[in-house]
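$ ./design --mode recover --in tokens.txt
reading tokens...
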């Protein structure tokens, strides 16, 4: 069966749809059963709302060499943006089965650049299921629709949607051994005619096994296969490329190791091979890895340090994959029970020169891009369900693209209210 991709895709999709129907039926039982009404709002269903105000001196990430007068009618790139969000969280346990969902709707309003005003929707649900004492897993789906980041699409309206359905299971057939498998169907779509060549769908299959130590650490092997297809014909200098499928295989080692009571290491790395029958210049064969170190020096402080080298899909104007190398650090300090100070710093280097570029317009994305992101946030929780936060950030891009890079600085004030208690 594993040697027949169309057959296993059909089987996986059939089982996934059946499982999602069962999940929907279970949710309906929860919503319409009489005992539920008494504690429905505030415990099973927890509404929430948030408001944020952003001030940014280059909110659309306009590049240094762009003609801002012709594009926006002004050289002043500073603007305020307001975001209004409303949603609800579902959390329900039935025996050992855990059902959860989260849905929200947002409206983003810009004070000066009102042409960028947009709405966003994010809905996701998960069933954490258990069968006996050895078999468990997750089944769920998500849908998100909203404006793409302006990083590689400065000032461009691009409403993208992402759909995902997934299923995974873990079989602990021995006290120290676990076998796992997963399937994910992913679909990406852009509503901008210039960017529809990004539209794609992926079927992702994974399997592997882990050794589970009594200390809580684990080590294992993970295999993953990605069958991708770009669903919109691509225009090149030689005409249209109607087929642009790719097949990616990964074999990686996976380590989650508890070093001490205050520190742990997570590692996922190994060999990745991707082939593209239509455009061999997009082929890749090399090493990918991600390493994370978690450290709690005190009961109130935590530091997470990450490093990675990965080939990933990017939502850019003229490339479908890039080789990303980067590092990040995230310190957190709980000053009191109600006040928390957190920071974030990352450096990312993107290389696209080894990958096929589908358009002749290379003004937005260069072969080499260096991205720096830094932020600091102070949050205050006066009582349960209410959080007020203020943050400041810096974002910059250095690139060899003709449009040049950018520097942006800003701040955000956010207020969030969550009704009820779990």
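writing sequence...
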């Amino acid at each position: 069966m594993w040697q027949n991709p169309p057959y296993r895709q059909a089987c996986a999709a059939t089982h996934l749809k059946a499982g999602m129907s069962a999940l929907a039926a279970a949710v309906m039982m929860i919503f319409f059963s009489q005992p539920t009404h008494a504690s429905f709002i505030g415990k099973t269903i927890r509404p929430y709302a948030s408001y944020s105000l952003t001030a940014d001196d280059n909110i659309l990430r306009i590049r240094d060499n762009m003609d801002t007068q012709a594009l926006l009618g002004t050289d002043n790139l500073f603007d305020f943006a307001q975001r209004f969000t409303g949603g609800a969280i579902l959390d329900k346990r039935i025996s050992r089965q855990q059902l959860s969902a989260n849905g929200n709707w947002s409206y983003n309003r810009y004070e000066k650049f009102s042409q960028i005003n947009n709405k966003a929707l994010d809905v996701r649900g998960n069933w954490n299921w258990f069968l006996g004492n050895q078999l468990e897993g997750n089944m769920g789906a998500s849908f998100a629709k909203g404006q793409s980041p302006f990083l590689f699409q400065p000032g461009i309206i691009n409403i993208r949607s992402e759909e995902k359905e997934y299923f995974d299971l873990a079989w602990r057939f021995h006290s120290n051994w676990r076998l796992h498998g997963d399937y994910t169907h992913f679909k990406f779509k852009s509503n901008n005619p210039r960017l529809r060549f990004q539209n794609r769908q992926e079927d992702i299959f994974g399997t592997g096994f882990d050794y589970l130590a009594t200390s809580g650490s684990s080590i294992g092997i993970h295999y993953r296969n990605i069958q991708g297809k770009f669903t919109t014909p691509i225009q090149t200098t030689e005409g249209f490329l109607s087929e642009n499928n790719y097949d990616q295989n990964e074999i990686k080692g996976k380590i989650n190791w508890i070093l001490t009571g205050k520190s742990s290491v997570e590692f996922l790395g190994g060999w990745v091979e991707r082939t593209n029958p239509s455009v061999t210049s997009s082929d890749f064969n090399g090493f990918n890895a991600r390493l994370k170190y978690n450290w709690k020096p005190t009961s109130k402080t935590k530091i997470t340090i990450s490093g990675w080298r990965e080939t990933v899909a990017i939502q850019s104007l003229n490339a479908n994959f890039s080789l990303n190398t980067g590092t990040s650090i995230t310190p957190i300090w709980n000053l009191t029970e109600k006040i928390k100070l957190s920071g974030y710093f990352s450096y990312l280097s993107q290389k696209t020169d080894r990958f096929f570029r589908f358009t002749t317009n290379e003004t937005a994305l260069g072969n080499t891009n260096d991205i720096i992101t830094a932020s600091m946030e102070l949050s205050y929780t006066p009582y349960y369900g209410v959080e007020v936060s203020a943050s400041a950030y810096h974002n910059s891009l250095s690139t060899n693209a003709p449009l040049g890079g950018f520097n942006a600085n800003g701040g955000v004030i956010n207020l969030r209210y969550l009704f009820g208690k779990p």
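exit 0
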